[in-house]
Amino acid sequence: MTSSLNIRAALSLGAQLLNVSPSALLDCEVLLAYVLKKNRSYLRAWPDKTLRANEQSSFTALLMRRQTGEPVAHITGTREFWSRPFQVSPDVLIPRPETELLIEITQQKFQPHQPLNILDLGTGSGAIAITLALEFKQSKVIAIDASSAALTIAKKNAKQLGANNVDFIYSDWFTNAPNNTFDLIISNPPYICNTDPHLSAGDVRFEPSSALISEQQGLRDIKHIISYAPNFMCDDSYLLFEHGYQQGNDVQSLLKSAQFKAIEQFNDLQDHTRATLGRKPSS
Asked: What is the pLDDT of residue 90?
């Protein structure tokens, strides 16, 4: 980049450098705001502010990293979820906006003052577990993951965000889960088939495959959870999944075969079926 650029010019040139990204201008705004230690609204309020040389060089270095495909969330070390900043790293799945659908569904089914017992399977960064702990303050949340590195990130997020009602357990799904019964078991499990071409594009190239890929056409982990979840569910409790946009019928059939009741499915903002809910089978 040339010297003495203002914010407007830096963003324009940055977007040209990142023209292969469908979110080039947004990426530039996030990166420049990160360099300036400001929020994005500052960039719009002060477009004619001239960048200092060190700010410009830092911004350029971050753009070069983004050009290689490195996710913006990995570059900045954070990603917003439910309007809260979560630390992320290559050890965890980057929280996605569509996963907020799980929070919305939970809020539809329960009142915020209810003292719930909630189990989050495959917590990753802790985005789901911590958000539920903060939105349902009288509840107790158990968050499980089979990655100790992911749990380290999740614990940092819980401390930073003040979620004192969530505990983290190292476990391969239910193996080390407490012998409790839960009002809600919730999960954003691995559900991508290992032959899916999307695995070779975008941010997922930089994310842990263990958080993305599942055998049996992406359904192995979902099948496992459906099989064992009733042993950890209290009467009239719920099991709630995120899944792939083409897996709705399969997940619904799996829940029906396991005798789950009152099965509901929910669409994301693109009108794709991305979450399925079922009530515990009758004893």
From this structure: 95
Q: How many CB atoms lie within 10 A of CB 259?
A: 11
Of the candidate CATH numbers 1.10.8.10, 1.20.120.160, 3.40.50.2000, 1.10.510.10, the domain formed by 7-69 belongs to: 1.10.8.10
The per-residue pLDDT for range 229-252, each reduced to its tens digit, is: 999 999 999 999 999 999 999 999
Report the chain's mean pLDDT, rounded to a whole number. Answer: 95
Integer-rounded Cα Rg, in Å, for the chain is 21
Give yes or no for residue 256 having a pLDDT over 70. Answer: yes
Domain boundaries, the chain: 7-69, 91-279
Residues 144/112, Cβ–Cβ less than 8 Å: no
Q: Which fold has domain 91-279?
A: Rossmann fold (3.40.50)
Tell me the CB-side half-sphere exposure of residue 262, using CA atoms within 13 A: 10
The pairing of strands 182-187 and 117-121 is parallel
Position 206 scores a pLDDT of 87
The stretch 159-174 carries a mean pLDDT of 97
CB 181 within 8 A of CB 142: no
The yes-or-no verdict on residue 273 having pLDDT over 70 is yes
Alpha carbon distance 248, 117 (integer Å): 26
DSSP 8-state class, residue 139? -
pLDDT at 241: 95
